[in-house]
Amino acid sequence: MNLDALIPDYVRNFQAYHPSRPDHILQLEYGVPFLNRLNNNENPLGPPPAAARVIAAFTPDRASLYPNGDSYDLRQALGDRIGIAPDRFLVGNGSCDVIASVIKAFCQLGDNIITADKTFAVYEWVAEFSGIEARLVPLLGYTFDPQAILDRIDDRTKIIFVCNPNNPTGSYWKRQVLVDFLEKAGNNLIVVVDEAYREYVEDPEYPDSIDLMKRFPNLVTFRTFSKMYALAGLRVGYLAGNDDVVEVVRQTSVAYSVNVQAQQAALAAISDDHEHIIATRTMVRMAKSFMLAICDNLALDTVSGEGNYMMIKVPINDMMMYRRLMKRGMMVRTMTGFRFPGWIRITLREKSVMELFAEALQKEIKSIQSTGRTW
Amino acid sequence: MIRHSFQKKNIFIRLPFSADFLTLAMAFADKGARGFGYGDRETGGLVLAIEELFSFYERESTKGSTVEIEMEDQGYRLVLSLFFCLADPDMRAFNLTWNVNHDSQESLEMLGPMIAARTLSSLRLEFGADEKVILRLTRNREYSMAERVALPPSGNTSTLRLLNPSRDDLYHFASMAATYGSPFLPPFLARPEMAADMLESGHLNALLVAGDDWIMGGVLWKPLTDSCLELYGPYLFIDNPDDEAMTLLMDEAVKCISRSWFKGLVRRQGALAGHERFFDFLGEIQLSGKNDVNATYYYRQLKEESSGVVYCTGNLAIFLDEQYRRLCLPRQIRTASNLRLRNASVLAVELENARSLAVMRPLCAGKDLDTNIRAHLDLLHGQGIENFIVELDTGRSEDVAFADALEKNSFLPRLLIPDAGLGDLVIYDHCKLNAQS
C-alpha cells in the first residue's frame, strides 16, 4: 500500500499532539509514590454532590445501552437553566469535539480562522489538520487584541475564536469590549467565544455571550463541564448558538458521541452547582493569593487572571523544571507549546497541595539560585 | 506554521546474491540514480561502491541467499541500502586505517570495500537478528559553494516579522549566512542549493526573520537521528540590542519543534545567550587549533517523558548515573553482560578540517577494539588532526562495548546528549583536562 499517496499534505505536515503517559507509568519512571496533578486545570473538589451521586449510582447494566444520540435531557435542562430553546445547544464529547464540528461546518480549503498566538491550541490544530489556515494574532500584553484580530479578517475568514478568559493568561474581554468587537467584525463570519472557565469569573462586567446572541446572530459560545464541574474524565462540553447556526453545525457533528454517564452527570451537575461554585472559587482565590506571595518572595514573575490556573516564569527551561518537579511528585504544564518558553502553568488547588507544591518550587529555585547555575 | 515533511521516494530490488546478478545490481544503481536526476559523479560513485561491495560480500555469502537493494532519493542525497544475511562479515576495510598489502592476497581482496567506503559521503552499518547485515551507502549531490551576497545595512530599524521560507528564500538566506561567516556554519549552509533541496524534500526546516526587503536572520533544524533534532543558529545579520529578532525566532522555532514527534532537540554550536529559557546545558568541549573554539552542547527534552534502560558497566555507568541525576532524566542503568565480539571492529570517522576535529563513531565492536582505536589516533595525529571525539550510543550494545577500550586510550566521557542515538549519546573527548560539564 502506498500510504503516502493517500495522505493529504495538510495531514502529513501536521505534527500531532502527544499526550503524557498515564500517571502510574510516570510515577515509576520518576520514582515517586504519588503525583500531584497541577497540569490540567482539573477541579480537585470533584463534581457537585448531585453529579457525584449519579456517577456512584451508575450500574453496569446501563453500560450496554446506547446513550441518547443528541443529549436530549441535558439540552432541555440547559435550556431551562439558561433560558433559550434546547435546540440551540449542541452537546459534544468535550469542547474539542464541538470545535471540530464548527470548523468542519463552516470552513473549506482556502478559508481561514483567526485566533491568538498564545491561547488554547486546539482551534489552531483542528484548522491545520483540516487544511484551513490558522491566522494567529499576538496577544496585546496578555490579552486578546481586538483591533489586531479585526485587521487580519479577509473575505476568506470564516471563524474567529476568542478564548474568554484566555487559557493560559487568564485575561478576558469585558462586555463592552466584546460588543464593540462584534459590531466591527460584522455578520459575515462566525465569532466563537470559548467560555471554558467562565464559572471562575466573578467580575459583573464579564459578558454573558449567550445573551448577546439576540443582537449578534453569528455568535457561538462554547462551555464545558470539565473545569468547574469536575467532569473532565467523562468528556462533556457544549456549544450554544442561534437556531440557524446550530442547525448547520449539527450536520457535521457525530451523534451518540456523549456517553450515558456523562449526560446524566452533567444534567445533575447544573441542578446542584451553587455551593460547589462558591467552594471552588474560594479554594482558587486562596491558592492564588498563597502562590502569588510565594512567587513574589522568590522573585518569580507570574501571570494570573481568572480561571483556576496561573503561569510562573522559571529561571530554567520549562521542560527541565517539569522534570525537577516531577522528581518531587509535582506535575505541571510546560508552556513552550503555548509560545511561552521558560514558563510553567499550574492548577490552583486545595491548600494542602499548594503547600506541597510551594515547598517543592522553593527548594528548586533556591537550589538554582544558590549554585548560580541554571542546570 | 506548516512544516515540510519527508515524503519517501524509493525503488527496491531483490536479487539472488551471486556474481551472475552483479551487472543487474550495478544497472539498478546506475538507472536509479539517473532516474532520480543525479549526475555522472554521484551516479558513478554509487555504481562503483555497489560493484565492489556486491562482489566482495557475494563471495562471503551462503549459496542461494538473496540480497535486497533499496535506493532512496532524499532530494539532496541518495541512500543505497544493501540487506543481506552473513555471519561475522569482514568489515575491516571500512576503517580509515586500512592499508592494502600488495603481497597479501587476502588484503588485496579487501581493496574493493576500501575503495567503496572512500567513494561515498557516508557509510553506516547495522546488524539485525539472524545475522542480518545492512549497509547504508550515502552519496550527496554535488553542490557549488555559496557566492557572496549583500547583507542588511547596519542601523536598520524596520519592523521585524517571521517568514516561513520558500526554496528561494532559503537559498538566499544560506548565501547570506555564508557571506556573514560563522565558525559553526554547517556544510548545507555553505552550499545554498543543498539547503534549498533539503528544505524542499522535507529534510530541513527553517524559520527566518525579515524586515522591509531584507532577510535579517534565521534558525534551522533537521533530524540528527530518528529521535533527535538538531538546531542550527540563530544566525543574525543585524545588531539587535534588545534581542527582538532572537526572541522572535527562538520562541516560534521552539514552539514548532516542541510539537514534533522527536524526543529531543540538541544544539552543538557556540554559547547561546539566554539559553536557559530553552535548553539544558550539557557541557562544553574545547577544540584547540588555529582558532580555539568551544563547542557548547545544549539539549531540550521535547517529550514530557523519555524513559529508558541502559546496559553498561564500570566508569561509564558511574558517569551516566551522575548525568541522569543532574538532568533529572528517568533512566534505569543495568549491568551489561559480556558482548560476543566480532573478529574485527570498525570505526567511522568524520573529519572537520576547519576545526582540526575527527569525530569517530563505532560501527561494530570487535576483539581488536583497543588496537583499532590506537591505530586511528596514530593515523589521524599523523595527518595533523588535534581534536578527537568519540560518540558512543548507549542504545547499541556494540557501542557500549567500546567504553573500556576508549578509556585505555585516554578518552574520557565528557557529556551526555539524551535521545540523540538509538539511546543516549555519550561524547568522549581525548585527554582534555579543561573541559567542563
Structure description:
The complex is a heterodimer of chains A (375) and B (437). Chain A has 375 residues and is of the alpha/beta class. Chain A is 40% helix and 14% strand. Chain A has two domains: 19-46 and 274-369, Aspartate Aminotransferase, domain 1 (Alpha-Beta Complex); 49-271, 3-Layer(aba) Sandwich (Aspartate Aminotransferase, domain 2), CATH 3.40.640. In chain A, the strands form three sheets. In chain A, strands 2-8-7-6-5-3-4 form a seven-stranded mixed β-sheet, with helices on both faces. A four-stranded antiparallel β-sheet of chain A has the order 9-10-13-12, covered by helices on one side. The model of chain A has no long low-confidence stretch (mean pLDDT 94). Chain B has helices at residues 22-35, 40-60, 105-109, 111-119, 167-180, 187-190, 192-200, 244-258, 314-326, 369-382, 397-400, 403-408; strands at residues 9-16, 66-73, 77-85, 122-127, 132-140, 160-163, 205-211, 214-223, 228-236, 264-267, 280-287, 293-301, 308-312, 331-335, 346-352, 357-364, 387-393, 411-417, 425-430. At the A-B interface, helix 3 and helix 14 of A face helix 8 of B.
Which secondary-structure class do the elements of chain A indicate? alpha/beta
CATH architecture of the largest domain in chain A: 3-Layer(aba) Sandwich
Shape descriptor of chain A reads globular
Low-confidence stretches of chain A: none
Question: What is the tally of beta strands of chain B?
Answer: 19
CATH level 3 topology of the largest domain in chain B: Heat Shock Protein 90
Helices of chain B, by number, come to: 12
> Could you report the average pLDDT of chain A, rounded to the nearest whole number?
94
User: What value does the Rg of chain B take, in angstroms?
Assistant: 23 Å
Number of strands of chain A: 13
Any idea how many domains of chain B?
3
CATH secondary-structure class of the largest domain in chain A: Alpha Beta
C-alpha Rg of chain A, in Å? 21 Å
Oligomeric state of the chains in view = heterodimer
